[in-house]
């Protein structure tokens, strides 16, 4: 039986996320044809070596011709230029979606360029790593992870159902919310942790004498966890900071207040306050694990992407 959900999928951007989608689509046979497009010749060549698609082109406009699903997986700051490039070449009835980490800005950049005859359904898979580029992707990345859609009002329910089904086939759990809410939630659960990691690793690096020896030598401690996040792609995270500015600043201001309060508790030896906070935060970690959201020990049952049992 055929698993084909779309006749032609155009992947614009073939880094960590685009290439992970490509691997799943090809393993599961979800598309009649996969067309890969990216901006740099080197990345396109690598995508071809990795056999991520059926056709390869430097032109996003050419890639979307005849495609019934277009997935834009580029740094969020490049969304408008991609939208402008593909707009006139989109097939009537095509679904255009994206994977960007911020939603209000991507919508503001892309929607004005989308013709009436396509379905623009912005999305965001909450799955990834600190790595980037086509070699970093892998099949199964989206399994057991959330994918959030922020469909504009009046979105065609059939098109939405098709794109939801696509992500569910990749193993994701799908949710919908408005873009502003998405951006606030992601500011605290994803963007701030990265910013804090960039900051602490930067501070340690500024303390030259420490960095030269002790930081590397003793990095088996908590610092090591921060260095993973702080190794994330600079272009992608510069764009996230610039394109979710308001929500990030709001959360940072709240964070700074709470940090000052923690600082005061340490200065004045307020052990009860420290103990209460650390007890509360430990419970948060426990509830994440109980909800099955722990990265180290996920158990989401068998999935189409699992290797077949012998
Ligand atoms: N890395 C992660 O963990 C996650 C990233 N995202 C989002 O997915 C999107 C892609 O991220 P990654 O795949 O990690 O990045 P990546 O750096 O691995 O890949 C980006 C791709 O976009 C292409 N590209 C860059 N600038 C471009 C431009 N101006 N025009 C056309 N193509 C361009 C690159 O050639 C590359 O193929 C970003 O919007 C990011 O916010 C979403 C979830 C997780
Ligand atoms: O590597 C990690 O820990 C991540 O948090 C990956 C990630 C990065 C950006 C997103 O928008 C979603 C997921």
TrEMBL record:
A Gene Ontology biological process term: tyrosine biosynthetic process
InterPro entries, sorted: 6-PGluconate_DH-like_C_sf (IPR008927), NAD(P)-bd_dom_sf (IPR036291), PDH_C (IPR046825), PDH_N (IPR046826), Preph/Arog_dehydrog (IPR050812), Prephen_DH (IPR003099)
E.C. code: 1.3.1.12
SUPFAM superfamilies: 6-phosphogluconate dehydrogenase C-terminal domain-like (SSF48179), NAD(P)-binding Rossmann-fold domains (SSF51735)
Annotated protein name in UniProt: prephenate dehydrogenase
Signal peptide from the UniProt entry: none
The keyword Ubl conjugation belongs to this UniProt entry's keyword annotation: no
MF terms (GO), sorted A to Z: NAD+ binding; prephenate dehydrogenase (NAD+) activity; prephenate dehydrogenase (NADP+) activity
Pathway(s): Amino-acid biosynthesis; L-tyrosine biosynthesis; (4-hydroxyphenyl)pyruvate from prephenate (NAD(+) route): step 1/1
Domain spans labelled Prephenate/arogenate dehydrogenase: 7-296
Broad class of enzyme this protein falls into: oxidoreductase
Organism: Ferirhizobium litorale
Catalytic activity: prephenate + NAD(+) = 3-(4-hydroxyphenyl)pyruvate + CO2 + NADH
């Amino acid at each position: 039986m055929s698993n084909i959900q779309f006749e032609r999928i155009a992947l614009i951007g073939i880094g960590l996320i685009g290439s992970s989608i490509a691997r799943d689509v090809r393993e599961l046979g979800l598309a009649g044809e996969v067309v890969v497009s990216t901006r740099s010749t080197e990345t396109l060549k690598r995508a071809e070596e990795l056999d991520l698609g059926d056709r390869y082109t430097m032109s996003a406009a050419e890639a979307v011709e005849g495609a019934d699903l277009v997935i834009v997986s580029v740094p969020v700051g490049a969304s408008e230029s991609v939208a402008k490039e593909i707009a006139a070449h989109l097939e009537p009835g095509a679904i255009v979606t994206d994977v960007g980490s911020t939603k209000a800005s991507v919508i503001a950049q892309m929607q004005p360029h989308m013709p009436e005859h396509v379905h623009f359904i912005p999305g965001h898979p909450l799955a990834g790593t600190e790595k980037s580029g086509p070699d970093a992707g892998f099949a199964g990345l989206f399994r057991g992870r959330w994918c959030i859609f922020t469909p504009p009002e009046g979105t065609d329910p059939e098109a939405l159902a098709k794109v939801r089904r696509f992500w569910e086939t990749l193993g994701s759990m799908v949710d919908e919310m408005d873009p502003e809410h998405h951006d606030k939630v992601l500011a605290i659960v994803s963007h701030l942790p990265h910013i804090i990691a960039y900051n602490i690793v930067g501070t340690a690096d500024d303390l030259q004498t420490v960095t030269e020896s002790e930081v590397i030598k003793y990095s088996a401690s908590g610092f090591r966890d921060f260095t993973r996040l702080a190794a994330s792609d600079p272009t992608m995270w510069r764009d996230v900071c610039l394109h979710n500015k308001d929500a990030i600043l709001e959360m940072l201001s709240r964070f700074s207040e709470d940090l000052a309060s923690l600082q005061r508790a340490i200065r004045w030896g307020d052990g009860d306050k420290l103990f209460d906070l650390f007890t509360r935060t430990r419970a948060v970690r426990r509830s994440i694990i109980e909800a099955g959201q722990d990265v180290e020990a996920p158990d989401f049952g068998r999935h189409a992407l699992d290797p077949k049992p012998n």
